[in-house]
């Protein structure tokens, strides 16, 4: 896609940004040092419109430095909704990749991110991470954030509390061993959270993060369609969901190579959230 077409299309997207949350925006993470805590919520009422989470308990800022590893994740507050977007100064977006790592695709995604000096989030599954520890170490070296996406990608809402705990705990342990610190973020497979999941992730020190824009790359719709999903959905605060494993992800790899330079040329700041307690 030509850049000018992209910019033109974005003009309409800004006006429609509030509608992005209509699919169930719970709350927005605040990004940007010095920004006032912001809340962005779906004012557009829909069947799934939900109340806004108070962001007052903590604020987030972009990851701009590399602090000492955090060995122990403190228990966090129990949420009732996952975060679906971020908010902050300017055109901030977050790229996320789920279900990996996969040695066939993840290295290419890391190469593209490195080429453009961009940090992203990887929500990994324990059973993938366990035999790809080198890739988690590379993510740590290159400043990416690794989150927990369960051990075996089950539908958690059908599991007992003890099995949910096991899925999350085992994965956090592998991440700690390979990445160097325990994960601070959790994403439920299929976006399926329930009260037990919120409670257990909080016990393990993780905050729930969903997404704003689904690239639907898991349907392998073609590289162009994935690129269009990202560029059509681009707006300040958007969290993009893609996959680096779970099937043939060569389209996802190629799509990133196309949309990432477009987003950067359009003035987007692609970053990762950092939790900072006030
Ligand atoms: Zn997944």
TrEMBL record:
Residues 91-271 form the NodB homology domain. InterPro entries: Glyco_hydro/deAcase_b/a-brl, NODB_dom, Polysacc_deacetylase_ArnD, TAT_signal. Keywords: Hydrolase, Metal-binding, Signal. Transmembrane segments: none annotated. Residues 1-28 form the signal peptide. The keyword Hydrolase applies. Pfam families: Polysacc_deac_1. This is Polysaccharide deacetylase family protein. It comes from Streptomyces gilvifuscus.
């Amino acid at each position: 896609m030509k850049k000018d077409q992209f910019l033109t299309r974005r003009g309409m997207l800004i006006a429609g940004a509030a509608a992005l949350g209509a699919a169930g925006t719970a709350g927005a993470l605040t990004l940007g040092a010095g920004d006032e805590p912001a809340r962005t919520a779906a004012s557009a009422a829909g069947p799934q419109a939900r109340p806004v989470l108070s962001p007052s308990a903590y604020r987030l800022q972009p990851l701009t430095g590399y602090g000492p590893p955090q060995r122990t994740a403190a228990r966090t507050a129990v949420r009732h909704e996952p975060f679906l977007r971020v908010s902050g100064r300017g055109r901030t977006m977050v790229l996320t990749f789920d279900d990996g790592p996969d040695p066939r695709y993840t290295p290419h995604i890391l190469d593209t991110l490195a080429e453009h000096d961009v940090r992203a989030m990887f929500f990994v599954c324990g059973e993938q991470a366990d035999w790809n520890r080198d890739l988690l170490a590379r993510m740590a070296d290159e400043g990416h954030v690794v989150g927990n996406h369960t051990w075996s990608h089950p539908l958690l809402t059908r599991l007992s509390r003890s099995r949910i705990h096991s899925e999350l705990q085992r994965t956090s342990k592998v991440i700690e061993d390979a990445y160097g610190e325990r994960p601070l973020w959790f994403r439920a497979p299929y976006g399926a959270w329930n009260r037990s999941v919120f409670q257990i992730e909080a016990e393990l020190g993780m905050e729930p993060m969903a997404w704003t824009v689904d690239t639907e790359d898991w349907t392998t719709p073609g590289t162009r369609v994935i690129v269009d999903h990202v560029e059509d959905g681009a707006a300040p605060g958007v969290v993009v969901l893609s996959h680096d494993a779970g099937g043939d992800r060569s389209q996802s790899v190629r799509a990133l190579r196309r949309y990432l330079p477009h987003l950067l040329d359009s003035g987007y700041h692609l970053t990762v959230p950092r939790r900072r307690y006030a």
